[in-house]
Fold these 3 entries.
Entry 1:
Amino acid sequence: MTSHHRKLSPPQPRQPTRLFFLTLGLIAVFFGVTVGASWTNNVLTRSPKTSVSADIQALFPQGWAFFTKSPREPAAVPYLQTAAGDWVRADSLPQAGANNLFGLSRNQRAQGTELAIIAHLLPGFEKCADYVSNCLETAAPPRTVLASPTRAQRFCGDLTIVMQEPVKFGYRDRVPSQTRAVSLARVAITC
């Protein structure tokens, strides 16, 4: 064996660094303080006016309200009338439906944004405090013509956008429909 041939040693496992453990420790302390501060009475609570939770909320002001929407708030739902005269939803929701590959397709994600833009561009909605089916059949607000405001162009043609809200939980078994219309607008969208 010559001197230029060295015996290679197996690679040594890398030792965790101090930075990794320091970061892990800071994350653990942060989660510990936030969980502890969320409890009403504990050692971390200084006083009602100056608590750790108030300090955390000052640093990180987002709460669950940022991520969620009230289920009682009216929602815009697009409907179209078939050749037979029936009213059907024009969107492809719910996401877990077969037409969306049981949640695997993400194409319907842009529909809410496009619908909100269209609803914002409408000059106004006609009030109709009744069940959705009754409002669709009886109300006849003037039709607004709009060019599609988005590149996605998922909604084209004659639509009726209904602002609808769910029936209160206590009354759900006493009414024929789970949703009620608040207002509606008719629109013709050119694509």
Entry 2:
Amino acid sequence: MKQLEEKDTQLDDMTQEVREKERLLEEKNQIMGQREKLLEEKENQLEEKDNQLKEKDLQLEDSNHRLGEKDKLLEERDKLLEGKENELKERRQEVEEKDNLLEEREKQLKARDKQVEDVNNENAELAQQICDVKTEVERLRREVSAQMTEPGETSDTGSILPVRRRDSMDDPPYMGGETSDTDPTFPPRRRNSMELNPPDMGGESSSPDSPVSPSVSELRLVLLGRTGAGRSAAGNTILGREEFGAQASPSAVTQRSKRREGDVCGRRLVLVDTPDWFCPGLSLEEMRQDEGLCVRLSAPGPHAFLLVIPVEPSKGEDRGVLERIEEVFGESCWEHTVILFTHEDGLKEQSIEEFLQAGSQDLQQLVEKSGSRYHVLNIKDRAHGTQVSELLDQVEEMVAGNRESFYSSQTYQEAEDQRE
């Protein structure tokens, strides 16, 4: 019995061991199942990653293809840039060659300008020599005329003086009018108080007792004034045509003195337009050179300085203008000065007298210095011819009051010597 009990006990123990082993196996099976699930999940994840990698490989392949195309484009652009650089180099060479040509042409132009200036100087000297010859001819004519009027002299003047002829060397032709065929014993006809021949180089052409009136073949006028005053426009208005560049601009239009000629209101005019000599930015050397050019262009000397002042509120520049004119031309220039007030319908209902009364003391002093000689000129209305003829009449009256004298080159030289 004991053996059976022992065997039963052993069987129970073995049964328990088997059960325990079964339980352990079941647990292991569960663990294995879980692991299989994990493996399946990981396999799925790996498969997804493989798919992602394949997609990335495709994307990389596409990117590489695009990069290849871009590399080709870059190569083509590099070639284009290289071609353009070569073109730029060629163009730079062309520009350099053109610059060299321009520089050579500028040198040639400067040389031509110098030649032109030399020719102008020679012309001015020739004009002065011609004027000297005319003056000598006039002096001889006056001497002959004086001999004719002496007591006891025969009245048959025709045997003393030859008949004047248009092509005679003794009497240069009138520049814009008619010649007189009357008896040579009578003084030649005056036309607007201006005569045939030029005045004497010294400034006076005859004495008051001379039986023959002095003669002037042309009126020489010099335009002076600040930038923007309307000098060039006034010159164009006087000549009745566009000769001097003129525009509505605060900057200077005239850079160097210019000479223009024309027949105006029965008179031969020589008009010299000057730059702004009153500008503080103008160098002394440039100013001196242009002053000398103005003197040569108006040789043997101007009959009148036309000081151009716009009809507008004063900017306080009149004092500098007065001092500068006296410094350049000397005190005596005021005897030959007419102030020219320019406007473009700027006066309106205001008279010039009211404008002067309301003006600055410096402006009033300018008018006083010029002997209260002034004229108003509408530079916009060129059709109004009387304003020009009245101006020229006033200039002639001034010249007649100065005993037919003009501002001579000798007077300018004396003023220049005083400056130095």
Entry 3:
Amino acid sequence: MLELGLMIKKLLEENIKDVKIFFQEPFKETSETIIYITLDESRIDEKTLPRKDVEKKDVIEKFSGNGVKKIFKLSSPPLKPITRVEHPPGIILRENVDFTVNYEQQTILFKRPPKKGNENIVITYYDRNKVYEILYLTMSVVYRIHIYSKDP
């Protein structure tokens, strides 16, 4: 925000000669014309939108539980949130209740070890490397420009 304020100050200095410009309120009793700038409010909003030209495709991985192991490594980095985790197949588990995901390490940690069985854990997710997102930032800034001058 300061950089934007400095740009406003520079623009004013280039176009208004012989006037002092400040970022703080000067003494009100002045013998010369002065301008000061204050930042009244600022807000930055963030929006993430999927690109329309890229089709998301599900990655489905099956793991076998052994009744002991709790951590399972995914073959690709998942996009938040994981689409679905089933154990046994057909029973949907909930993230942060039944399991947690470390998105950076590509691992899923079950709260309780999944029961023993062949391919009895089904994890469905989007591959983060194959999905593109665009991040939009919108900035709203309100500056107030005060001008003081000596009485004629």
